[in-house]
Amino acid sequence: MSRKRVAVLISGRGSNMAALIEAARAADYPAEIVLVISNIPGAGGLATAEANGIAAVTVDQKPFGRDREAFERAVQAHLVEHRIDIVCLAGFMRILTPWLVGQWEWRMINIHPSLLPAYKGLDTHARAIADGVTKHGATVHFVTAELDAGDVILQGEVDVVPGDTPETLAARVLKVEHEIYPQALRMIATEYKLI
Ligand code: GAR
């Protein structure tokens, strides 16, 4: 079995990244995490990646200012250098241009903290509570040029309970995220044939 080479893009603590690294330890897991890229210097997940012997790179977004494609070309250079097959966005808090998305069609996936198509964008937990919904959760989906709109791969559901705050709900959803992201990557890495 040739394992797919995966890059994880992060902006923060990287707990989903850590869940992917952990899952990929299994001998039968069809992917290996070989590269972590952060757009934010000092993001917590970088240290976790390094502690696991994974190449951890910062592509600081600041010097690129508003030139989003120039930033993405710098990211893409690392992805190419590391011969990446699949890109996982895990708390990567940037909207991507159609150019980068186009480089990774069907090979870039994202985890989003809601049951898409509900609650695209930010502050998903607070919005779910404000609306009084009883079910919330997380979605792994393919990335397309439209924000949080690509085909769904897997979803995980949690109940919203009386007294929930955005923080308590986020913590419950995060547990589900850590289960479904490794499962979704397993599915994609198994199905996806190198072309
Ligand atoms: C996760 O809850 C993820 O779903 C969310 O950011 C958090 C990152 O946590 N992503 C988004 O909101 C993307 N729009 P992590 O760094 O611990 O994985």
From TrEMBL:
One of its GO terms (cellular component) is cytosol. Catalyzes the transfer of a formyl group from 10-formyltetrahydrofolate to 5-phospho-ribosyl-glycinamide (GAR), producing 5-phospho-ribosyl-N-formylglycinamide (FGAR) and tetrahydrofolate. One of its GO terms (molecular function) is phosphoribosylglycinamide formyltransferase activity. (6R)-10-formyltetrahydrofolate binds at R68, M93, R94, I95, L96, N110. Transmembrane segments: none annotated. Gene3D superfamilies: Formyl transferase, N-terminal domain. This is Phosphoribosylglycinamide formyltransferase. N(1)-(5-phospho-beta-D-ribosyl)glycinamide binds at G14, S15, N16. Belongs to the GART family. Pfam families: Formyl_trans_N. Residues 4-185 form the Formyl transferase N-terminal domain. Keywords: Purine biosynthesis, Transferase. The active site is at H112 (proton donor). Its EC number is 2.1.2.2. Pathway: Purine metabolism; IMP biosynthesis via de novo pathway; N(2)-formyl-N(1)-(5-phospho-D-ribosyl)glycinamide from N(1)-(5-phospho-D-ribosyl)glycinamide (10-formyl THF route): step 1/1. One of its GO terms (biological process) is 'de novo' IMP biosynthetic process. InterPro entries: Formyl_transf_N, Formyl_transf_N_sf, GART, GART_AS.
